[in-house]
Prior knowledge:
This protein is α/β, with parallel strands linked by helices. It contains ten helices and eight strands. Strands 3-2-1-4-5-6-7-8 form an eight-stranded mixed beta sheet, sandwiched between helices. Helix 4 links the parallel strand 5 and strand 6 (about 110-115). Helix 6 (about 160-190) crosses helix 7 (about 195-215) and helix 6 (about 160-190) packs antiparallel against helix 10.
Amino acid sequence: MEKIGIIGCGNLGLSLLKGFRKQYPDAQLYGTRRNVSELAGYEDDKTHFTANNREVIRQCDYLIIALKPYTILSFLEEHKEFFDSKKHTIISVATGITLEEIKNALALSELSIYRGMPNTAADVQESMTALSGLPDPLNRKDHVSGLFRAIGDIVWIDEQLMESATILGACGIAYVLRFIRAMIQGGIEVGFDAKTANKIVSQTVKGAAQLLIQNGLHPEEEIDKVTTPKGCTIVGLNEMEHSGFSSALIKGIVTSYQKIER
């Protein structure tokens, strides 16, 4: 595995680095952050942190740009002289910055440029990463697929859907965790302590996801297996829907998407 650099080790960048570290124990990983002392606990002889972005660009083959969206283009323009079209594969994980904007900022005619939208489950190798890219003169698409498949699953999409993927896959982690929190609170109300409720709910959600992933069925088909006539499950589901459960979730997803699109 070539050297991997992550420019901007915030929450997402650090999750990616931790996931790569577990999957590529022999790889050289580099990360940047203004205050590198906050990352001291993750450093070892093959994991390096620095505030020097130019050094990481010089050292690495794969460069994942995980900066705030409003800083990326100015960063690329400021550092474009350090990028090498034959050496570097650029992967931006920033929301709202297009491939063409990245290409124009770097002003290089032949460069492997991709966008990726992973999520923080990369930390535990369970990310869902949406990917898109410009036509790659160096044919590195399979390498990019392998890089992100190592920390979860991937899907290649049209770039115009990248903001939608951000909402469903990246923001989606927060939506699911809020649902889990509510289930835990309900579990406490019906008699469990918080630790036990957390364990039951977390495994239940994991099991529900695996039913869909492994069986390839629609959620309603699995729901039907649990909802017996006059049973406690259907009563609970109906009460949730009367309170706007599905509607609230859909509205939240659409509102988040509209925030990006503004």
